[in-house]
Amino acid sequence: MSTLRQFAAAVALFAGLSASALGQTLGPSARFSPQPVEYPGNTRPLAEPGIFDYDGQMFAPVEFNNFDETAPNTGFFFTMDRIYNNITRGGARDINSQFAPDNATPTGSDWQWGNRFDTGFMTDADCGWQAVYEYSEGSFFGAGSDILVANPMMVTTRFDNFELNRVFRQHLSHGGFFEPYVGLRYIALSDNTIEDTNLTIAGTGTGHRFTQKATNSAIGGHVGGRYNTNRGRYRYSFDGSLATMYNRQRYNTTDLLLSGTTITSNDSYDSDTSFIPVLDTRFELAYAITRDLGLRGGFQLNYLWDGTARSDNRTSSINPNSALGIGGGQSGVFDESTLVAGFSFGMEWRR
């Protein structure tokens, strides 16, 4: 009987020790204690790069996201870009061209800085709104500004573009998505020139200031589409649209003559309307720093096919729009084409 009691006591002791050991193994432990294997329950306040992406929010719940998902963002978005555009110069008025050969006309294009802002929102139903505004402005001298140019002409050109679009989103079977849109566009393009010359008229020293102002205000509808695809943290975007625009042209010139204390002004003004087809293309590459914030860069091209009024950048003595030029102040509006192409870089915020 004594032996049986001793055996029962030994079994009870062994069972108790086993339960204690099992309780220590499966019982709760410190939440952030080191673990040998990474798994969803093993969260820590500071996630290791490459294993957990906490999106820059150090105390937010861990998101297991490798940026390979194809689902696009919804909600509000905002982008801001710095743009560097190259804009072609205005051509020459072919009035009395025998007195002003083609090689006397400053040609080419000029670079100018500006900004682009893009904002809007997309709903879970894959439709939304987008508003875009961009501008660039710069000045140059039509025939240069060195010592060999007796009276340099400074030209200031500004380009503005505003869009309001209704956007729809279509998911593609091979990945990525396509966003067709339709909307309203407004474009403003202007040239302002100024040139000062010292003349001798009837034996009297006379100062001559010749200015020009050519403006375009175009409004119309446009349609386009945007293709987006993700490759990890990178997003590629191709955008193209075509607009048909009604343009209001205005051209104004002024000749100011200062002789002693006498000021004489000669002004001329002309206006016209035109129809402008506009082609707009854009390529962008964005890199996602976090889920919501990214860096981006791109290239864009706007081609205004005829219908724009530009300044004649020839010096006043051979400029038909000057009262002292070969045309005697024959201002006129001529339809020209304008190419605006350049680069952009900036940042984006997406929900």
Task: Describe this protein with a few key phrases.
351 residues; 2 domains; ten-stranded antiparallel beta barrel; Lipocalin
SSE layout and pairing:
Layout: H1 2-26, E1 75-88, E2 109-122, E3 127-141, E4 153-168, E5 170-171, E6 177-201, E7 204-231, E8 234-259, E9 262-288, E10 293-308, E11 336-350
Antiparallel strand pairs: 1-2, 1-11, 2-3, 3-4, 4-6, 5-6, 6-7, 7-8, 8-9, 9-10, 10-11
Question: Overview of this structure, please?
Answer:
It contains one helix and eleven strands, in the order H-E-E-E-E-E-E-E-E-E-E-E. The relative contact order is 0.16. By secondary structure, the protein is mainly beta. It has two domains: 1-65; 75-350, Beta Barrel (Lipocalin). The protein has a ten-stranded antiparallel β-barrel with strand order 1-2-3-4-6-7-8-9-10-11. Strand 6 and strand 7 (204-231) form a beta hairpin.
Which architecture of the largest domain does the CATH hierarchy give at level 2? Beta Barrel
**Helix/strand order:** HEEEEEEEEEEE
Strand content: over 45%
Calculate the mean pLDDT score and round it. Answer: 80
The CATH homologous superfamily of the largest domain: OPCA outer membrane adhesin/invasin
**Rg estimate, integer Å:** 35 Å
Give the class from helix and strand content and strand pairing: mainly beta
CATH topology of the largest domain: Lipocalin
Major beta-sheet overview: 10 strands, antiparallel, barrel
User: Rough shape?
Assistant: elongated
The helix content, as a percent range, equals under 10%
Summarize the entry for a quick read.
By secondary structure, the protein is mainly beta. 7% of the residues lie in helices and 56% in strands.
